[in-house]
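Hi Y.,

Following your request, here is the sequence exactly as I used it, all 354 residues.
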Amino acid sequence: MLDRSSQPPTQIPTDALSEILRDFRLSGVNYGRCELRHPWSITFPQQQLLRFHFVSEGPCWIHTEAQGWQELQGGDLVLLPQGVEHRLASKPDVVGDSLKSCQVTKLGGNVCDVVQEGTGATSTLFCGSMALGANALNPLIALMPPIIKGCDVAGNDPIVGPLLAAMTEEASQPQLGSATVLSRMADVLVARLIRCWVNCSGASTSGWLAAIRDPHIGRALAAMHRDPGHDWTLETLAGVAGQSRSIFAERFSAILGEGAARYLARLRMQLARELLGQNMSVAAVASQLGYESEASFARAFKRITSVSPGVVRRTISGRTIWNSDFRTHIILKDSAMKTSNPWRYFNDGHDITA
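Below is the corresponding structure, written out as tokens. Let me know if you'd prefer a different format.
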């Protein structure tokens, strides 16, 4: 079915979503405590970063192209899974970018303090930007809406409120290790919000979300995303799913609209394009994704993407962004993510502390 790899499959837990979230880590986490006096407005351009904003107190509005202006109250949390362009402001009619006039102080690690002086009402916000460190989450993140209000999906989660309070306390009074503590708490916060969204997002009978919810297909899907370079066969995937070969093949195709072999081949090519964009050699990518030879990988890559891996490697410097149906991809420049200065992409890819 697929090219061979010497790597053994990882043991898969019975809960597919737990498997997807097991290696969930947010890399490059930046956390900013913002104390802003009206009038203020901050623009966050499109970047492939997961972002969240928590309003501790004071007036705050958020604007996205999809939903326009929405007022946020004290205690509201918003999550922007794909990092779409958005604006925060004390009122919708405030123009300009206040960040340029703010005083920004590094508090240690990846934590900063952002202050705008003035005489108007004070808004206290906690803003985070981060990159996902788990490939298995990419299709799930792509399915999520551009903006999610945490209070809409986490109303029954008793941990979110105290967790936000702890993050607020940690950022307000930073100590040794605060950056690490905030990063770990951000991991937990976002993972719980993702789980809440999955549980509250309806009961579709087809597509990736339906597949990850299926107790059998979900385990196989998680296994493929966790270790795409393994020598998966229909038999081994059916074994992970706990089904016979024929039942698994039929059920997988019914939910996802294609066979497991085709799905895995496209998954590999999506990851290959990302790795090639990071300037990894064609031979190294072929080996990492389980192909016996560079030639066999190149043939598979060109068959699925219609271009050769060499062409992609020479012309692309970026990373793969997954779309909602896992059938196409967008390549975006990633220079801000590669910088050694984490403050460069707090809001717009520029060093706001310079």
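The CA atoms of residues 36 and 116 lie 5 Å apart.

Thanks again,
Q.
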